[in-house]
Amino acid sequence: MHKAIGKQLRYLRRNLKTLDSMLDHFEAPGQSFPLSARDQRIYWRGAAQVMQHIYAQQEGMYRSKTCRYDDRIVNIYQPYVRPIVRGKDKGNVEFGVKLGVSLQQGYTRINTLSGRPMPFS
Asked: pLDDT tens digit string along 40-60?
């Protein structure tokens, strides 16, 4: 398993370097952009930095031979979402914000809020 993870990390490092070099050569006159419109939006909205950060986290876990990393990113498109250990039969881990809500005199009140809240748009 450790050997396979190391191999995948090397593939990812190679692909990130290839993407960076493709974008460096893009500035040459007469060349079209190497990414599709969808991939361009994802890349320019910060996915490149998120992927670099995920790679660094995974490589750190690989080198230290651990499966734990504080504030580990689990979703490229929503890097602010964190796993929450719940200990339920259905699943030990849930993702998102844990919210404690009560109803008082017809008003909804948020009592507790844990995890990183999703940004409002």
From this structure: 777 777 777 888 888 999 999
